[in-house]
Here is the input.
Amino acid sequence: MRLRIIFSVLGIAMFFLIPKLFADYNLYQFCLIAVTSLIVLGLVIVTGIAGQISLGQSAFVALGGYGAAILATNWGVPLWLGIPLVAVLVATVGFLLGLMTLRVEGHYLALTTMAFTAIVQLALVHADAVTGGAAGMPVPSFELFGKSLSTGAELYYLIVPITALLFIVVINLNNSRTGRVFAAIRQSEIAAEAMGVNILVYKASAFAASAFLGAIGGGLLAILVTYLDPAQFGITQTVYYLAIAVVGGLLSPFGAIIGTTVFVFLPEFLQTFQTYLGLVFGIMLLGFIVLRPKGLASLIDIENLKKIVFKSRRESVGS
Amino acid sequence: MEANILGVNNVTVQFGGIIALSDVSLEVTPGTIHAVIGPNGAGKSTLLNVISGIYSATKGDVSFEGERLSGLAGHEINAKGVARTFQNTELFKEMTALENVKVGLDRFHACGVINSALHTKQWKKSDAEADEAARELLKLVGLGDDETSSAGILPFGKQRRLEIARALATRPKLLLLDEPAAGLRAAEVEDLIAILRELKTNQGLTILIIDHVMALVMAISDRISVLNFGHKIADGAPKEIRESAEVIKAYLGEKAADAYST
Amino acid sequence: MLGQLLASSVTAGAVYALVALGFVLIHKGTGVVHFGYGDQVTFGAYLVLIIQFLTGLPFWPAVIVALFASAFLGWAIYNGLMRPLRNAPLLVQIIATLALGTVMREFLRAYMGPNAWSFPFLLTSSSFDLGGILLVPANLAIVGVSLALLCLLFFLFERTFRGKSIIAACDNRTGASLVGVSVSGVFSSIWMLASVIATVAGILVAPVLTLSPEMGLIGIKGFVAAILGGFNSLTGAVVGGILLGVIETLVGAYISSALKDMISYGILILVVLVRPQGLLGILSVKKV
Here is the structure.
């Protein structure tokens, strides 16, 4: 318990200290990491923890981003309201998509979710009346209490707390019944069903959760990049999110943060090799899935750390 | 005669052209241990899979406490009070023994998504209760010291017992055991017999068990049904089954049965 | 008008059919779905250009070298990647093939640049008139090669000992190895064959589509064709491919050009939900 308080205090102190220490550009990067890790977190839940392969993540991101931007542009719904509103709708779409798992699994699930991504992308191209078609559309600025947020620092104070809150919720749920049932479904569907788990509802819920996080991430991403076009949301992008999840660690919410940090900062170090960036990402994905399929998070054994902390505490209580 | 807790009524199961079960009926009396035996391929596992909702019967139906089970999904059947174990153990291998049991227990210790998401005091309380209940079950099957071990690395005999603990966690009235003694050493079979007796006498559980291990079946069963090639060929007390020519024929062949009867 | 539409839709369909044949071959033969196959088709076409750059060979010899090189590539993919992963969870296999496709595509982007390359037609691309319908020899070649490959594969699987041992190896790995079939040898040759098909498809398709690293997206249409026809059926792959080409062209011409691409993905989802075994496939019963 005491450890938790210390960590919370440290975290909050760091949160307020960081904007003083880093340049605006770095803060913008932190925002990008936060948003991308939210999107990847969705993938970690559905594909990593619940074991249902999804190639639909960038479609959820697209729906979240475009949805909020269109509501704001055409109907004047402010983004702070539009983003969560749209995310709930997208979560419903995710739930319906998840209900397909009743009939579809494995390869077929990968193909269907891939087709879903392709359909959404094509719809964005062809619905040019509201989306601007292949050329894309600008995102209205994010206004809160009459003030428009645009600099890295301003967005930092918006995006990082939202991300932190959602991560805490997901980590807590992962450590309670929901997470256990998801993991149970991944490890043996037939046993989970026999233990009284309505696996269809849970699988659909995993999709809904990943859609919700993807859509929130998409809305925030729209604010960050200020311009949306369909090319940002294709199958290639879905594989990019998957690569982040795999490199970070598919089985752990922390994997989403670790993976995203690597993928956002790597281009900085490889600036002279910009042309090889995509290749480096591809090779990393291939290397990790073959040699270390549980990703970087498995190098830092969080469960083991927990055990050590708990054990030492129990022993000290006992003695 | 007491009303049965489980009734299998004229069940036929067909896969394509293969008939796995043919017009099989049996009745299980509450508070008893009922065994189903038979040679390989007799349809024993199919029978269990039909009762627990993994397969559906082509003809006939299954009733539990007077309600029809046929047509219900596996989780609904479990909610009615029927739990099972699996022949080739279907544990959640990457979870600890304690977590395996908690998957079954959790719905009795639920406290809502919001409490879980924020890990409120109420959640902590119900989670601690679930832990306590899970430990009790692990102790019951003799796994008290293994709660933090991953299920996948437990020795085989312990995995079998963990499956029983996990099934018990869903608070069943009827427990279906699919070859719980297969591959166990003699000492482990003794442990299993003790556990099953304890469940029957002290917890009032009804058990339907499938097994090849005669030492186990003869020691604990109140009643035995025998399947052969999808047909029920005998049904009775262990003593009657042991002396049935029909059964000996199924197991040992015609000549042995003749030799035995003369 | 309709006749002309059908003639050109069959070409598009034959392209899908070629790609679908490769998928189905790998899936039927080794149980793996190669999600990077579309990229491998692109890679195959680029291989000819790369060999020309490196060796200065003329086009046709370069094609022959490329075919041998892709057989080696297939061997390397199986022995270097898929064989070590043969007991890995399905999820890992799916991601590995996706990653393989990404690596190929990004290699081409880095090494050959992101822009399109021109690629010569094998036969003339100037059309001739047949009973009022304009036909293009280069397109006919695609149709012809698809059908020829189908016949060849059909013969290989159904009529030869090798083919029978392949089917045996897929059905039951242990059983096949007990009767003396080398499973890894069989799988190895399937990957080699599928890689050669990818290169053939790439060479035929590159001049019709545009040869850029993104051409691999054609792979998805190949999936749709394979699913439509039945994922385990070689004939189904060709039928599914042609059918998809026809449906797309008709929808594009008579309903809306915006729907043309979407319809194929819609078909994929519909078929998977309603008739997962496809038109010509056989549903396998899962054992619990």
About this structure: The longest strand of chain C covers residues 128-130. Chain C has one domain: 2-216. The interface with chain B takes residues 285, 288 of chain C (CB under 8 Å).
